[in-house]
Write a sequence for this structure.
């Protein structure tokens, strides 16, 4: 493999978790542009996406992914813990998370929530230990969760605290040590959200106006323009 492929592979390693969530159209375009320019004439978008993922793995080597826990006891424990956190009941929250962590330690989100519970209980040692584990499990996930206050409002006090600033510093240090570009990751997350927005609005627009209405047809035209822009942005990012 030549140096240019190595450089491209190293960059793709950084953005692989986000690329795998991109819409099939984006995946198809990236695969077409960078790896197999003629295959788009032969394969469907779904198949192209599968080929893209294969190509990414081939370029980047072994990649370790988090697997969600399927244990119903784990799921029950974290659901109880979150409910206790939302009620401000810190000790039952910690106890429920500790039961969950005895079964699985895969979730950076749960460890950050456990850190917030420990904060509420004025237990800085346990809070820091939970937070450190979140960064250890997946620093990129910890970064996204900690900074998504609209999606995870229960963690805003943690983010705004001194411990939150310390966690962010550790996330940045871990990313630097791993050669992971956090800013690029955020850029791709924003692109994914932009790409998915019209898809998420499709059923609402169809129900509201009807498929033949001028408003719905304008929505489809706007969607096509948005897709074209997303394709250009995706190719520019990977270039």
């Amino acid at each position: 493999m030549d140096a240019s492929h190595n450089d491209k592979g190293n960059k793709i390693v950084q953005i692989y978790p986000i690329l795998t969530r991109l819409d099939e159209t984006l995946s198809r375009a990236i695969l077409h542009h960078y790896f197999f320019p003629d295959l788009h004439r032969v394969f469907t978008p779904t198949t192209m996406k599968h080929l893209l993922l294969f190509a990414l793995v081939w370029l980047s080597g072994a990649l370790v992914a988090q697997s969600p826990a399927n244990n119903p006891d784990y799921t029950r424990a974290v659901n109880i813990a979150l409910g206790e956190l939302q009620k401000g009941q810190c000790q039952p929250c910690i106890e429920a998370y500790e039961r969950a962590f005895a079964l699985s330690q895969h979730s950076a989100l749960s460890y950050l929530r456990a850190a917030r519970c420990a904060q509420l209980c004025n237990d800085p040692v346990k809070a820091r230990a939970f937070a450190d584990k979140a960064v250890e499990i997946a620093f990129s996930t910890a970064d996204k969760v900690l900074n998504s206050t609209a999606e995870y409002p229960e963690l805003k006090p943690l983010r705004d605290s001194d411990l939150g600033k310390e966690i962010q510093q550790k996330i940045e240090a871990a990313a630097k040590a791993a050669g992971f570009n956090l800013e690029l990751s955020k850029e791709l997350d924003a692109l994914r959200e932009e790409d998915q927005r019209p898809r998420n609005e499709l059923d609402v627009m169809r129900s509201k106006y009807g498929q033949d209405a001028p408003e719905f047809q304008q929505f489809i035209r706007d969607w096509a323009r948005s897709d074209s822009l997303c394709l250009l942005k995706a190719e520019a990012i990977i270039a």
Residues 1-23, 31-43, 46-67 have pLDDT under 50 and may be disordered. Residues 26 and 231 are 6 Å apart (CA to CA). The radius of gyration is 21 Å. The chain is about 75% helix and 0% strand.
